[in-house]
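Quick log. Single chain, no ligands specified.
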Amino acid sequence: MILEGDCHDSSKHKHRCVTGAIYNYTMQLKSADAGSELNYNLTEALLFLAHFVGDVHQPLHVGFIGDLGGNSITVRWYRRKTNLHHVWDDMIIQSALKTFYDSDLSIMIQAIQRNITDNWSNDVSNWEHCAHNYTACPDRYASESISLACKFAYKNATPGSTLEDEYFLSRLPIVEKRLAQGGVRLAAVLNNIFASKTRTAQA
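-> predicted structure:
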């Protein structure tokens, strides 16, 4: 569970974490308008918001501090020496591209999009929903991620272990679904931000 008190930097400044950043950049984009005295770099806010919404859906980005989210857990991905965080950031996706998608990212993206409109279509409204009509709910996204980190990322991935087909094939569906959830939720957040601006402009 991700708690408010967990969201701080080493000097105990609040909101210095990925969930705090999502709230902050969402607020910047929502509150900015032509007459505002607030001076935000909106391009920067949009880029960082997109980046951090993606980040929070990667389970080890909210992994344990003690192992730096898996960065200090050295493993082998098949024959290649790497760390567990890199496996979840990159190696599972790269292996999937090579094994199932003819090394073509556009084919992988299309497959995930088909799952969103087909296999996961009944889940999309729940993915988009935020309690209390919040524009974004990163604490929820992070809570999902740490649960997945414990159940899937860290499981059977001890220091020095070799991760091969059994790990890859059982974790790939998790990775692809998190990519889909991140994309759907980013779209929902941006639609909410810009829809509110349209309503304000029409008022």
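Confidence is low (pLDDT under 50) at residues 1-6.
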